[in-house]
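Workshop exercise sheet. Pairs work together: one partner reads the sequence aloud, the other fills in the structure field after running the prediction. Swap roles for the next sheet.
Pair: D.N. / O.F.
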Amino acid sequence: MGFGFVYWNMWQDSPQREGEKAQTAFSSYTALWQNGRFADMYEQLSAKTKQQITKEQFVQRYQNIYEGIEAKNITVEPVYNGPVEPGEDGNIKLHYRFSMDTFVDPITFTGKATMVKEKQAEGEGWYISWNPTFLLPDMQDGDKVRASTVPPKRGEIVDRAGRRLATCRVVVDVGVNPGEWGQLPRTEQKQVSDLLHISSDELAANVQANTTKKTTFIRIATLPEDDERIFQLTGTKGIVLQKKQVRYYPYQEALAHLVGYTGSISAEELKKKQAQGYRSSDKIGKAGLEQMYEERLRGSAGGRITIVNAEGMEKKIVGERFAKNGDTLKLTIDAELQKEIYEQIKQEAGTAAAIQPKTGEIVALVSTPAYDPNDFVLGLSTKEWNQLNGNPKKPMLNRFAHGYAPGSTFKPITAAIGLDTGAITPAEEKTINGLHWQKDASWGKYEVTRVSDHRVPVNLQKALVYSDNIYFAQAALSIGEDSFLQKAKEFGFHESIPIPFALEKSTLTNGEMRNEIQLADSGYGQGEVTMTPLHLALAYSAFVNDGNMIYPSLILGEKHETYWKTDVMSKESAQIIQNDLLQVMEDPKGTGRGARVTGHSIAGKTGTAELKQKKGELGQENGWYAAFNLDDPKLLLVMMVEDVRGRGGSHVLDSKVKRIFTEALQ
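Structure field:
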């Protein structure tokens, strides 16, 4: 036997070599740990450890804890500071650095592992003497890790005066304990279903689908805290009542389409939002501003990771992040004015927009009929949803977001274009005989029709006062297609209105102006012209602001330019038309005379837009009103009501507009 061979054997059995073997084994263990291979980690545990915990328990414990705290990006790094050798007890101590991201803050710590040399089925080697501190520092046998989420408080939506439009309130979940519920006689079960307006079949199917051996509560309805039915249900066998906080909309239908509502996050939404910290139990904005400002309103959740002992007592906070409540969203809306407008047209299918014409602040955006967003928060029964969805007046449709033919309320825009291009002058009179007119025989059977023949020459003021379709059809032809389209586009047609709410773009044409007939019809707001009520209000603001269209705002305090569109008409044209619109309301023959308010000068224009597929048929008529007060202008209101044929046309709105201005100008 040579000297080298003897030296090799001595080195193989040396303490230094044993230290290297232990380090190799530990490096393998930490690599498995970092990659989540818990079953393979178990194979490297000491025999004593394996006696204390089974492989299944070991794997399950790691998985449960890491899933519970949403552990990601786990890093386990052995720390070797030079050679190591067995201690007096024959074991080797090694250190490691551990870090991971969790649903709160990252957790990092330095741990110490004890390696023991022993023979196992795999052969002799170095094995890990495992204990609970490998999971988290200070953990002992019997301890558990508790992860709890602290939800943020959703930001409120308030109006310009701080009135709450979206807030929270306490409600009561009505549920059944299936074990006890099943023992109730059918007659008593039916009494409960009738009381909650749920069909017996729907209730039975819900209970059956959600019943398991451990189930003690199945929610069947949610009621306001002060609902008298709660008192009737109290003490009923099998009924369980639980309080909770939910989103609440005090103005109910009046602001439904603007504010929107929240609801449980869907599987599709969760898939898109999971990276932002959303959970399957979260509520999320489903419509309106609740949806559009979800990120600001939601805030961010907090949470705690704690170690608790066998008795459930908290021992140590391992990680903590405080919840950040959502922002309060303060609108320019005047909730009381919005409610007043809603009350005036709630029986109709209609819409309205109101602004402060000097500031551009939007004070009302109304759509009727509407729905109560609280119903969506509490939960609609199948019957209630079918009634809502099947309503022919379409209460779910947001009408202020859609464009409609503006009819005669468009005529002041044509007038402004005509004055600025020189196609018309204020004093020029047109002699128009009869109720029907066409340019020439090339129009075939198509004619422009006006409401009445006053048998006098018509100038601009009279044309606006009488709302003469023929005058404005002729004006559009005099302006010419190119000038008409170019100047009209300067009012913001085919553009998005710069507010944080999705509105349809107003249009002049669906493509190209096809012929002179369409151009003539466009002059009095028919043809393919469409406008949202807010856009029409902004266009009318130019009559108040020397020819400039005010920049709209919906969020109070946001900085922006003073005007959205400048010089859409000359200052002189704006003043001329403003005076003429005053006469529309004041002249004994003015179409807006029915909405005058004693003691106040109000300018405005009425309109009736007819929607029909072909000449000769009777189409639906929509009635319009656009009006603003002249003395210290505070309110510019645009209102539209559908289906006014046979009811007086736009005069259906007279009393409504008058009441709104009377209230607003007090």
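Discussion prompt: The chain has a mean pLDDT of 91. What would you look at next?
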